[in-house]
Design goal:
Strand content: 5-15%
Order of helices and strands: EHHHHHHHEEHEHEEHH
Shape: globular
Number of strands: 6
Number of helices: 11
Length: about 250
């Protein structure tokens, strides 16, 4: 007698990679963004992303013309940063990526990789199953912000891992690293899929999936200064004792 087929468990709905980045900054910020459906990027973000596709031209742009672009350092410093960037082995691919603004859907998350390095335009199915000898593609994300002195900020680190894992799921091969570009400074940083970085990604993924109601306030209050919800965050969740001035 044939055993009855067991129902196949549904796969959890994939989460937008941008939501993971917000939650990595502060889960409470993600809550308010979801509540207000506030995920439209500021207008300047498009102009910043344009910089990431113009590095070669910007290396010889005049001070006056650079001053009109959304860079955050002096023209001399910017050109010096681009000169360092041009020494990277993957510089040509950064300047002219095989694929740009690629939508990726992985097992757990989905979102945009602003560039895919080492990928031919419009790859067919055979390209996604490249041999082990073929170098793996490298996804990049473009950040409109300022880079830290070393490495990348936590939200970009989580976002980079998420993009790499989504690309790995689609291409059915390990993706060992992703890049984070800070084009307002002409700086590119590498995020490797180390155990530590993957653990940070999994923690944030669990946080987003388990969110119910308003998350607790962050203990890192320095983040609040740059948060667009700082004026209203918590106003509906304070206790009666606090509202009466007794807390």
């Amino acid at each position: 007698m044939t055993a009855p087929l067991l129902p196949v468990p549904e796969r959890p709905e994939t989460i937008p990679i941008s939501h993971l980045a917000r939650a990595a900054y502060c889960p409470r910020q993600l809550y308010y963004a979801r509540r207000d459906d506030d995920f439209e990027p500021p207008a300047r973000v498009a102009a910043v992303r344009d910089l990431a596709f113009a590095y070669e031209d910007l290396r010889t742009t005049s001070d006056e013309a650079l001053a009109d672009r959304p860079i955050e350092v002096s023209p001399a410093t910017y050109r010096a940063n681009l000169a360092v960037l041009a020494e990277r082995e993957d510089y040509d691919a950064l300047v002219d990526p095989g694929v740009r603004d690629a939508f990726l859907r992985g097992r757990d998350c989905h979102g945009i990789a602003h560039k895919l390095l080492g990928v031919a335009p419009d790859p067919d199915d055979s390209a996604t199953e490249a041999s082990a000898e073929t170098p793996p593609p490298t996804p990049t994300i473009v950040s409109p912000g300022t880079p830290p002195p070393r490495g990348v900020w936590e939200p970009q680190r989580v976002r980079a891992v998420a993009v790499a894992k989504a690309l790995s799921w689609e291409y059915r091969r390990p993706i060992p690293r992703a890049l984070v570009e800070y084009p307002t400074h002409g700086i590119v940083r590498t995020v490797r899929l180390t155990t530590r970085n993957k653990s940070a990604y999994r923690r944030v993924l669990w946080t987003v999936r388990s969110m119910s109601g308003v998350p607790a306030r962050t203990d890192e209050t320095s983040k609040c200064d740059a948060c667009e919800y700082r004026e209203t965050c918590g106003t509906k969740t304070r206790s009666l004792k606090t509202l009466l001035g007794l807390g």
